[in-house]
Amino acid sequence: MSSPIQAGLLAYGMSGQIFQAPFLAAHPGFTLRAVTERHQQRAANDYPGIISYPSVEALLADEEIELVVVNTPSNTHVELATQALRAGKHVLIEKPVAATVAELQGLYDLGRTQNRQVLAYQNRRWDSDFQAVRAVVESGQLGQLIEVHFRYDRYRPVLNPKPFKETPGPGSGLLYDLGPHLIDQVISLFGRPLAVHKVQGAYRPETRVDDFFTLHLRYPGALNVFVSSSLLVAQPLPAFVLHGTRGSFVKARADVQEGQLQQGLAPTAAEYGHEDPAHAGSLTLADAGGQLHTQPVPGRRGDYQGLFEAVYQAIRHQQPYPIREEELRWQLELLEQPADHFRE
């Protein structure tokens, strides 16, 4: 049996505490060895014996560490991933991996030179609600898909206290914050679009970055996919709406993993990842006589451990990683695409 992969986190903020550390600690293929903590040393309270390094450089100098999780502010991803690769580490990089296609290409080229893996942390592929959407699409029950809507909305009119989220620059704004989640889900289902029309807006008082976007993606077979997000939606619409020649599917955003992790529930708990049955999707299909029938479609169990299992298999057994290089390139092509801009 292969030895566990020694892993280090570059930060222990919300992302490290909620989305990475619990899974690295629970997966038998990893050892959560170290974390960078410049100020308060909190990780040891949750993981006794973990090493707390005062700087990224100190963590990267640890020869035992094989995998580095780049979970720092998005405007540092490329720089820190580059440092980690040059230090001989595999990297698991939070979204967005980079701000441009050129930056992404540079990381993968360096990874190949160093014989190290460049892996993207796109955890929303393992959400319970999206798993239900995938199952319906792959079943073919809706017939030829015509119109698909993916939304990720919030009501947050006050500016974010984290400066990097509100400072203009490469990779800033809502498009690069929530866009990678939605676009990755779409690409994982439908691949690269033929064309795109994008609109961005800035509506919150004193905002300096976009807080609204919508993309219209055109696919073969006359499929239209709409990807939208806003920080000024007080009454959210369903997160997933799909219409085809034989029926429709509607699903609310109902994945419970983030909330459960914030409450301290371990990923290994029996109840982990199971959404409320009341939030089941609604599938409406036409029978042979044209009559419509609606039935609930429960969400599949959400489990971000699927991502970490894929990381383990990629590093230890050279298995293909599901979030492919070309898919990230397509994602960034869409993020970089010029948009029509609106400001109030």
Task: Report, as a whole number of angstroms, the end-to-end distance.
Answer: 60 Å
Instruction: Return the string of H and E elements.
Output: EHEHEHEHEHEHEHHHEEEEEHEEHHE
CATH superfamily of the largest domain: Dihydrodipicolinate Reductase, domain 2
Main sheet attributes: strand count, strand direction, barrel closure: 9 strands, mixed
In total, the number of domains comes to 2
**Fraction in beta strands:** 25-35%
User: If helices are DSSP runs of H or I spanning 4 or more residues, what is the number of helices?
Assistant: 12
Give the SSE map.
Elements: E1 5-9, H1 14-26, E2 30-36, H2 43-46, E3 51-53, H3 56-60, E4 67-70, H4 77-86, E5 90-94, H5 101-114, E6 118-121, H6 128-139, E7 145-153, H7 163-166, H8 174-177, H9 179-190, E8 195-202, E9 212-219, E10 223-230, E11 240-244, E12 247-251, H10 257-262, E13 281-286, E14 292-297, H11 305-317, H12 325-336, E15 340-343
Parallel strand pairs: 1-2, 1-4, 2-3, 4-5, 5-6, 7-10, 8-15
Antiparallel strand pairs: 7-11, 8-9, 9-10, 11-12, 12-13, 13-14
Helix pairs in contact: 4-5, 5-12, 9-12
